[in-house]
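Researcher: Next sequence.
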Amino acid sequence: MMIDLRSDTVTRPTAAMRKAMAEAEVGDDVYGEDPTVNRLEERAAAIAGKEAALFVPTGTMGNTIAVKLHTRHGQEVICDARGHILDYELAMMGWFSGCVARPIRTDDGILRWEQIRGEIRQLDPHWAPTGLIAIENTHNMAGGVVYPLEVIRELAERAHELGLKVHMDGARVFNAAEALGVSVREIVAPVDTVMFCLSKALGAPVGSMLAGRREAIDQGRLYRKRLGGGMRQAGVLAAAGLIALEEHPKLLKRDHENAKLMAESLARVPGIEIDPEKVRTNIVIFGVSGTGLSAGEFSRRLKEQGVLIDGIRGGKMRLVTHYDADRAACEKALEAIEQVAAGAMAGAG
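Model: Next structure:
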């Protein structure tokens, strides 16, 4: 059996999830009559400390709806230059919301107010005004980095003083909560909307949540329909989401421990470049250029060893720990990485 560390989206539904899905009470969610979806939305809103929440098929749809809620056509969205909302969502802020990105390059994936304030644009005859600030917590391509609470608070306070909204792409915000030792509610309290995934770290087969003020979420429900997200008897999916939401946050500590173990072990492998001190959640990004192999070739050789890890930009690879890969699987994956690296170095010599 392959050890799959490409993402935490590859997890399979647990037996408890499958049972809950088979027994779920359902209705037509477009009419607001699916009791299981309604329970999921109410619970998600309570956990996030927001007035209401909306069940959507994907995180991309949740982020797309949020951008549309907070902007008008012809505005700019400030985000990190490596943000998921910019790089991995098929230009939806332009396609659906009529906005363009104003990307800011950061060293660590954390947008701070001193960087943002110089990029904010007011209405003017020559440029598009700023409509929204979007942040990502944890930040995927920065290696699962976690926003400090004080940074979120300052950013949101200053943005609100200027009449700007803040959206958090919190696909893995439960990982951030585990890393900081605080509640999700505390992390997202300053922002206007937050999207978080049920199908990533929490392990549900499908679904994400968008939470915010009730008026915004009511409007978001209409945008969900426009995007094809009216899923009718969606309680069979929401049932698994409820288990993910209630039971699986407690599993994240182990995922983080496994990621730290892998980072510390990788740092000792000749040809591998990584700073294990930067690994705080379940994402590990490491360089393989020192082995003489491209990330794509390294990935191909790992697959031959029974391990799936994706290459990303600049000779780097990203692995993501999750509940379907236990400590033994992570150790076996480490052995495969060591073998591939050693073989490449020997061949180069």
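Model: The chain has 14 helices and twelve strands. The chain has two domains: 3-7+251-348, 13-247.
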